[in-house]
Amino acid sequence: MMPMRIICNMCPPLLSRLLCLMEMRCYLHAQVEVCLPNGTSTLGFLGLYDDDIAIVTSLGCLEVVPLDLDYKSVPVSSDDHVIAVGRVFSSYSLWALDGVPCTECSNTWVSSTSDTTKAVLGGPLIQNNVESKGRLLGMNLDLNHDDKRYTFLPLGSLKERLEHFQILNPKVIDFHNYSLPKGVSRIIPSGFMSVINQLKALGYPLPPPLVLELNGHLLNTFEGCFGESYAWKGYSPGCIPSVSKGFVWSRLTKNVLDKISRRVVSLASFNEGIRFFACTGLLIKLCGHTFILTSASLVRNDDEGDIDNNLKIEVFLPPNQRRSGKLEVYNLNYNIAIISVAKQFFRACAEDIFKTNPSSEKAYLQLISNEHMKSSQKVIAVGRDACEGLLMGTIGEVKPTNEDSKLNCEELRLSTCEINKAGIGGPLIDLGGRFVGMNFYDGRRVTPFLPKSKIVEVVTAADVLLEYFGYGLPHHIVPLDDGWPTKKNRWLVPPPYWYHGELDVDADDIPVFMGRQLQVGTSKY
User: Has the keyword Disulfide bond been applied to this entry (predicted)?
Assistant: First the structure.
């Protein structure tokens, strides 16, 4: 175990940060016990570290004196005297060692006597001159047993190191796009290894240090249900999550609900076994076969400029039909992808998006036309849960304009249905079960959708190409280039990120530490 060293109280009031010498590589998964000046001890979390120092964080408000890292100490000369201070862990006693700076090597000192002790490693080195008595020089790092010389990290270098660790006085705790600083490592407690491995398999960013241990939340995930869930007969893992039970599926006839449940699938793409994306798709009839209409976000590469040809696609139609999918055609400007499966689904009920009749076409035009908008005209956004494949639906209305959308596609419309990322690519239907459009997600409480008319226009070209090239062939992935404008449509999907609102709470309102809890679902992919 390591004794407590310098205390740095320059962080949110819930936490106290301790700077320690990094000497415990063999204890990386051990619990850290911190020896306090009052003769007691408390637990700490070992978070960030590099080759020299480590950061141990203790829960609660320890009564500590802040360390002024902006103070500029007087340069050390050979005539100076220094005092190294440490605390012996076993006896809780304070240990002080008198010394003098070395003239041969900078940032080193030797004991004035023949005594040496490791108890001062990680502790403060203090000037002991009349003019500058008690001024902090830095932190003791190492002891060379051959010449009994100590090495210390100067105060200025210590401040630079802590700034590089990104822990000094964070004004805003924001974990968007967090990554470890260069040359800095982190500790993954052994009790959280299974969670970390799960996060890696699902393609999620790893949490910043201590966020997982302190019950942080992973937001903008593919997991989690929206609206009202609908399970197939025989489903029994547990209670079905529902936000609006009885207000969605009861609005549809039994025949319509049966068709919807047999034509909406969940999809996931993988890069070398790591999940890349998850969304919803709609089985459609195309050139005499069944294909899947979905969002091209399923196969876009990270910079959105093109598709990723290395991705493998899996398609799931509950309760137990899983298929390997293949990208056949795509249109990145309208974010449309057509997926085929090697083996057709049993008892599927594909949507014929090309089929029209006067009554259904009139209802569709009235629904999306600004001139015929009526508040009583309801629509349902449908999706599949990324974990279990539960059917999800939320009810709303089509908005007259698309002014609130973050996406720049002019053909997009908005509905007041509220979905999550798993609902991307899912169908928007009216209460008669008629296909209205395909849903997207921009992180708001409204849902952008591409109207059926534009989808039919794009997919008609796919129908011709698939008839000409055939489908299922390994070398034919066809882009539907429709003469893109100079300004291409952008289809950014809100990325997942970690959040912990309790790290900056008031010091008088310290929450109870509840143990390990992760706000993310498990996936069967």
Answer: no
Which region, left, alpha or beta, applies to residue 234 given φ > 0 means left and ψ of -120 to 50 means alpha? Answer: left
Two tokens, residue 499: 């959040």
What pTM, to 2 d.p., does this model score? 0.79
CB-CB contact of 479 with 329 (8 Å): yes
Task: Give the angle subtended at the CA of 372 by the CAs of 367 and 378, to the nearest 5°.
Answer: 35
| Nearest CA among 268, 267, 269 for reference residue 281 | 267
Hey, which bits of 342-403 come out as E strands? 378-384, 391-397
What type of residue is 216?
Answer: G
The structural architecture, per CATH, of the domain 358-452 is: Beta Barrel (2.40)
The stretch 297-317 carries a mean pLDDT of 87
Residue 316 CB-half CA count within 13 A: 22
Q: Which residue type does 264 have?
A: V
Going from the C-alpha of 430 to that of each of 244, 257, 364, 391, 415, the distances in angstroms are 18, 12, 9, 16, 11
Average pLDDT score over residue span 314-319:
96
- Find the radius of gyration of the CA atoms of the chain: 31
CB-CB neighbours of 508 under 10 Å: 7
17-48 pLDDT, tens digit each? 566 655 444 444 456 888 877 778 888 878 88
Half-sphere exposure of 25 (CA within 13 A, CB side): 4
Selected residue with higher pLDDT from 371 and 294: 294
Residue 113 to residues 109, 117, 151, 351, Cα–Cα distance (Å): 12, 12, 17, 88
Per residue in 228-286, pLDDT (tens digit) is 999 988 787 665 665 555 589 999 999 999 999 999 999 999 999 999 999 999 999 98
Cα distance between residue 489 and residue 486, in whole Å: 10
- Can you spell out the DSSP letters for 93-125? -EEEEEEEE-SSSTTEEEESSS---GGGTTSEE
